[in-house]
Design a protein that fits this description.
Strand order of the largest sheet: 3-2-7-6-5
Organism: Gulosibacter faecalis
Structural class: alpha+beta
Pfam family, one: GAF
Radius of gyration: 26 Å
Largest sheet: 5 strands, antiparallel
Number of strands: 13
Strand content: 5-15%
Protein name: GAF domain-containing protein
Shape: elongated
Helix content: 40-55%
InterPro entries: GAF, GAF-like_dom_sf
Distance between the termini: 61 Å
Length: 407
């Protein structure tokens, strides 16, 4: 081994020496199962870094998928919380145990970017045969620790794994930028928490932190009456009819004629005079709420873009951020509405996300899908789960019983 070490960098050589002391032979280097697959979702939710996954997904997932790589987040002990990216590469690295819940600490698998980065406390790149375990030689990886900027404590590790591009300078740069974004958000939340505690004890001698205004947002998922969220104002609960009209207008870039809007808003057609009356009332609701939105006519349209939670789900799916989309999907769009335009939006949102999750092939995501209101009777997803889950998974019996009940 000494001749081989002489060709390696100091960091890798030192890691190999530690690996030999801990494991003896590379033949003993295997990622253990630290957390059972069925428990990973709950474990991630309770972890220190779990709530920052949306930041990582937004900054890294699409880029690594395009490069045929995967990105992983591990905790401070080297246990993988989450793995995403290229479907092909994710399946390939999964065969060597690079999956959520696996232990990739140096003491388990020897030299690897995530485990070694945690030991040395800085960025590490490991290419091919530099890995200690022979099963990992076909792959390369880069990793950076994530720290609490206030205390210096290592909270976890961020990794990119795959082919040669995994150790390219751009991969390391993306990892560092994303880790810094997470570290900054951790620090900001700590500051906000400290300010809240001081507020509970009485007025603080410092100036309050101001939060920049956000754009108006319409929440439709899992609600019979939409919630209009406004910058620096109390949210407004809309009536069923106003929920439908505002959702249809928010989904139309170029506006809608009175006939088009009436046809989309009512199953049997709506009289023009009734539509005009409802739109007048909606204008009054927006004005009374202080919304910086006005309703123009000929065609009917909103004066400014209005984002919706359904639109955010569709956008996340289009970017490949399937898990982000799933977290945002709280149920069907206005589930009890019979308006044709709302039914179309409801079906399109649900079907687009469902097909993306089935294509992704993640048991964890499909189990979460069944927990969303309106999805309990999805037999096809249950059959797919029976195919994906390990033979001894305790969840299989419940799935079979549910299928028998559905049949």
């Amino acid at each position: 081994m000494s001749a081989q070490l002489s060709h390696m960098g100091d960091v890798i050589a030192a890691s190999h020496r530690r690996s030999e002391l801990a494991l003896g032979s590379p033949a003993n280097a295997h990622p253990g199962v630290a957390i059972a697959l069925d428990d990973v979702r709950d474990w991630r939710r309770e972890s220190v870094l779990g709530e920052y996954l949306p930041i990582i997904e937004e900054l890294l997932t699409e880029a690594v998928r395009d490069a045929d790589l995967v990105v992983a987040l591990g905790d401070a002990h080297g246990r993988l919380l989450w793995v995403d990216g290229s479907v092909r590469t994710r399946r390939a690295v999964g065969e060597m145990g690079f999956v959520p819940g696996a232990d990739w600490a140096e003491t388990s698998v020897g030299t690897s970017a995530p485990g070694t980065a945690l030991v040395v406390g800085r960025a590490v790149q490991v290419a091919g045969a530099e890995h200690f375990a022979p099963s990992v030689h076909p792959y390369s990886c880069s990793a950076v620790p994530i720290r609490n900027l206030g205390t210096g404590e290592v909270l976890g590790v961020l990794d990119i794994t795959g082919g040669a591009d995994a150790v390219a300078p751009t991969s390391l740069a993306m990892l560092r930028a994303t880790a810094r974004a997470v570290e900054t958000e951790v620090q900001l939340r700590s500051i906000r928490h400290g300010n809240a505690e001081r507020h509970d004890r009485g007025p603080a001698p410092t100036r309050p932190i101001t939060v920049p205004s956000q754009r108006p947002r319409l929440r439709l998922l899992g609600r019979d009456e939409a919630l209009l969220e406004l910058p620096d104002r109390a949210p407004v609960v809309l009536s069923r009819r106003h929920s439908e009209l505002l959702a249809l207008l928010a989904s139309s870039r170029d506006g809608l004629s009175s006939g088009e809007l009436a046809g989309l808003a009512h199953e049997e057609g709506m009289r023009a005079v009734t539509l005009r009356a409802e739109l007048v009332r909606l204008r009054g609701v927006l004005a009374e709420a202080g919304a910086e939105l006005t309703l123009a006519s000929r065609p009917y349209r909103l004066s400014a873009p209005l984002s919706t939670d359904a639109g955010a789900v569709l956008d996340a799916v289009s970017r490949g951020a399937h898990r982000q989309a799933l977290r945002g999907y709280l149920g069907p769009v206005l589930p009890n509405s019979t308006a044709p335009g709302i039914r179309d939006l409801r079906d399109r949102t649900r079907a687009t996300l469902r097909e993306a999750l089935l294509e992704l092939g993640s048991a964890e995501s499909l189990l979460a899908w069944l927990e969303v209101p309106g999805n309990a009777d999805d037999a096809d997803v249950r059959y797919e789960l029976l195919r994906l889950l390990p033979p001894r998974s305790p969840k299989r019996a419940a799935l079979v019983a549910d299928l028998e009940g559905l049949e």
